[in-house]
Amino acid sequence: xxxxxxxxxxxxxxxxxxxxxxxxxxxxxxxxxxxxxxxxxxxxxxxxxxxxxxxxxxxxxxxxxxxxxxxxxxxxxxxxxxxxxxxxxxxxxxxxxxxxxxxxxxxxxxxxxxxxxxxxxxxxxxxxxxxxxxxxxxxxxxxxxxxxxxxxxxxxxxxxxxxxxxxxxxxxxxxxxxxxxxxxxxxxxxxxxxxxxxxxxxxxxxxxxxxxxxxxxxxxxxxxxxxxxxxxxxxxxxxxxxxxxxxxxxxxxxxxxxxxxxxxxxxxxxxxxxxxxxxxxxxxxxxxxxxxxxxxxxxxxxxxxxxxxxxxxxxxxxxxxxxxxxxxxxxxxxxxxxxxxxxxxxxxxxxxxxxxxxxxxxxxxxxxxxxxxxxxxxxxxxxxxxxxxxxxxxxxxxxxxxxxxxxxxxxxxxxxxxxxxxxxxxxxxxxxxxxxxxxxxxxxxxxxxxxxxxxxxxxxxxxxxxx
Length: 467
Hints:
By secondary structure, the chain is an all-alpha fold. It has helices spanning 2-38, 42-45, 47-56, 71-82, 85-98, 102-127, 140-147, 151-188, 192-208, 210-239, 244-256, 259-262, 266-285, 293-296, 304-334, 354-363, 365-399, 404-420, 424-447, 449-466, and strands at 129-130, 136-137.
């Protein structure tokens, strides 16, 4: 088995190198810029509207006879998918490889990605389907086929469905459960196989309840996990308050001269910082990847635009709030003030233990481990639930509802294996399929851009008439 892994790993890493350093950067930045200008900076114009929709619907209740979800439930399901290990371990990996400046490029991609995810939510709403049993489904496979109503469209939709099932439904959930297993084992000394069994049992119960149960759990977990993590982060930042200016200074400085901290020539270092920001930014906020539209398609809203602005807030919360908190904690404790990584030495510090070490600098090793384990438990568990649902929709698209039981069994096996096994190949394969999802999704977004512009324009005209 190890020989097979050693053979496949460098091949997948090479594919990921070209995808993340060239194709992904061009597609994601290009798509974000395109929709930003086509919608006349919808992420700025309608940001206030999005915040009102989100927090105005925070306490809205769904009715039992509703076929879809409330707007907030859809957002909570989307954020549950977005806020996971990418916000902790993924962000740390980007900082370790690309330096603190990688966070700056995460911010840049997130700003433009807010316009991208607006487009995804609009198209998900406009192309969603109602099945004979009354179930509402939607997502990229449906707007891809509308964009390309021919064999090419079927190929792209099939490519997307296979990629998301493997990336999120199977290997992605394995990555999440691995993070839960490792951190809980470190913090509580619970055997990873016990954690794996508990995860499987709880996940199986929730999966059986379908999207309604997943959304119900998500809308309760997401606010709790966000408040818990941000509260702990503020404790660290208050303790390191004198290093906050230096922390922000390092983010901006090393965004343009990363070779000063990660070594190598300026060209190579800058490309590394940018590619890490884009790749990990994608894994974090998932804009352009085509995952969260599955949740936004189910929202019961008066117009697609309403869910589009809500979707933008999801990216804002994920990157500019949660991920930024991780970055500030890590950089202020491990880099600023002549921290352990100030000179670039990384011995004993990996992306997996970096955030625990950072919180431990202020809270103490034991408390830091426990706090991060609890946060990761919330983050990764909620992500597993949403990702499983996204994979299920696409498995149904490929094989019909008869595949549900088979799909769920395989997914639960991967969740258990992820808790007890650590494999770099799984991380790399997850990255590869995440990135492959972008290609058919973004092509469809470009092809259907007029539908997105129409929604943004209609909303703008409505506002002018009200005035």
